[in-house]
């Protein structure tokens, strides 16, 4: 009987590398790492396996390990453009933008038609506020891949930061022509139109974003701002509330909701509720402090209103409005001594908008007092005071 020499099914380094790539693309990073380890164990000079293992380590947030693997691949192949580009990505992720740009430069030197390296370098240049350099790289992207929306989007964003909004809109429009399903292009074009005061055009773009990307929080905030500016109160409230549901830890959406209730609908209980939520997230925003206080004051919640205006004074001690508001609240609460004390401080800090004093009904409980008149006479002569007959009450 003839004996057979035992055959082997042992995989080669290349086969392990290819097997690892399949797993990497399927985002099975742990098992992809095992395959690339095996490929490198079998062939320590397998530059592709080293590069690919660097990609896996990056996905696993082992950034130092990724840099080491990409660097080893480059050591084996000094013209390895992909390794330079991908090491640049790691450096950029680590906020080492200068090192990232240096690697993108080398990737482009090794492959002058490397679209992705130009795009990544443009992003890094933009981050360093080298906008003209970013513009040139995006223009190269457009030259290399004119059918890709990426170059137009990037150039549009760069033109936008340079306040060339009309040109930015043209780039965003081209990006949309190339990829009508790109929500970022509609959102950015809408923002540019908003800055050019084209509210209707911005509305059309923002509404498109809500269709393409219903959970994009920012677009609902933008819609709320536009609707509020158009006095479409119900639509504004609906948009802000949607933003709040998607971004519950952002104060500006609650403030936007409250502002509509306070400024447009005079629904002070509702404005109080939303200012309260905004205040819990941001206790130093003047409009929140002030309007929250007046929401309380207009409901005759005197103690709470006074406490809020005291907070305003505490956070903004150099701003005369806090003292004025506090004085007004004490006036409504029929505490004339405290009212006059704080109103005097407001005047000393140059709260001299006499038309406001003249028409503010919150001061009616103190404006007839002799001490109130004496206080005004410390700061204004009689000729000025005579111009505002209601200021000191009927004589």
Question: What does this 3D model show about the protein?
Answer:
The protein is mainly alpha-helical. The N terminus is likely disordered. Helix 3 packs antiparallel against helix 4. Among the domains are: 94 residues, Tetratricopeptide repeat domain (Serine Threonine Protein Phosphatase 5, Tetratricopeptide repeat, Alpha Horseshoe); 78 residues, no CATH class.
Task: Report a brief summary of the structure.
The chain has 395 residues and is mainly alpha-helical.
Task: State Rg.
Answer: 32 Å
**Distance from first to last alpha carbon:** 133 Å
**Biggest β-sheet, characterized?**
none
CATH C-level class of the domain at 215-308 is: Mainly Alpha
Instruction: Give me the CATH architecture of the domain at 215-308, please.
Output: Alpha Horseshoe
What would you give as the CATH superfamily of the domain at 215-308?
Tetratricopeptide repeat domain
Number of strands: 0
Number of helices: 23
Inertia-based shape: elongated
Q: How much beta, percentage-wise?
A: under 5%
Residue windows where pLDDT falls under 50 for at least 5 positions = 1-8
Query: What is the percent of helical residues?
Result: over 70%
The residue-averaged pLDDT reads 95
Helix-strand string: HHHHHHHHHHHHHHHHHHHHHHH
CATH names the topology of the domain at 215-308 as Serine Threonine Protein Phosphatase 5, Tetratricopeptide repeat
What would you call the structural class?
A: mainly alpha
Which key features would you list for this structure?
73% helix, 395 residues, mainly alpha, elongated, Serine Threonine Protein Phosphatase 5, Tetratricopeptide repeat
């Amino acid at each position: 009987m003839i004996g057979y020499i035992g055959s082997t099914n042992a995989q080669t380094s290349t086969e392990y590398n290819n097997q690892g790539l399949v797993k990497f693309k399927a985002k099975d990073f742990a098992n992809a790492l095992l395959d690339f380890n095996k490929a490198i164990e079998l062939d320590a000079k397998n530059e592709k396996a080293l590069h690919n293992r660097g990609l896996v380590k990056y996905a696993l947030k082992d950034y130092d390990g990724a840099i080491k693997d990409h660097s080893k691949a480059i050591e084996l192949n000094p013209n390895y453009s992909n390794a330079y580009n991908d090491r640049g990505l790691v450096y950029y992720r680590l906020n080492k933008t200068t090192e990232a740009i240096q690697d993108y430069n080398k990737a482009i030197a090794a492959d002058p038609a490397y679209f992705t390296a130009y795009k990544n370098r443009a992003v890094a240049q933009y981050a360093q506020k080298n906008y003209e350099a970013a513009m040139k790289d995006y223009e190269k992207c457009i030259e290399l891949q004119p059918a890709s929306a990426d170059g137009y989007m990037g150039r549009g964003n760069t033109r936008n930061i340079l306040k060339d909004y009309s040109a930015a809109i043209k780039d965003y429009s081209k990006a949309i022509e190339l990829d009508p399903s790109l929500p970022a292009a509609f959102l950015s074009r809408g923002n540019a139109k908003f800055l050019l005061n084209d509210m209707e055009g911005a509305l059309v773009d923002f509404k498109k974003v809500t269709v393409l990307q219903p959970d994009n929080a920012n677009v609902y905030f933008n819609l709320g701002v536009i609707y509020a500016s158009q006095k479409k109160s119900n639509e504004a409230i609906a948009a802000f509330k949607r933003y709040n549901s998607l971004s519950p830890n952002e104060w500006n959406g609650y403030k936007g909701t409250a502002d509509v209730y306070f400024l447009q609908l005079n629904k002070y209980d509702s404005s109080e509720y939303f200012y309260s939520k905004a205040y819990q997230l941001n206790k130093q925003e003047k409009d929140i402090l002030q309007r929250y206080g007046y929401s309380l004051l207009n409901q005759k919640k005197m103690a709470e209103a006074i406490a809020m205006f005291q907070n305003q004074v505490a956070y903004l001690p150099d701003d005369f409005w806090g003292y004025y508001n506090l004085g007004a609240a004490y006036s409504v609460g029929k505490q004339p001594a405290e009212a006059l004390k704080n109103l005097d401080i407001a005047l000393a800090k140059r709260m001299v908008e006499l038309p406001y004093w003249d028409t503010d009904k919150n001061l009616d409980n103190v404006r007839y007092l002799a001490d109130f008149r004496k206080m005004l006479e410390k700061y204004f002569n009689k000729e000025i005071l005579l111009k505002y007959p209601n200021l000191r009450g009927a004589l």
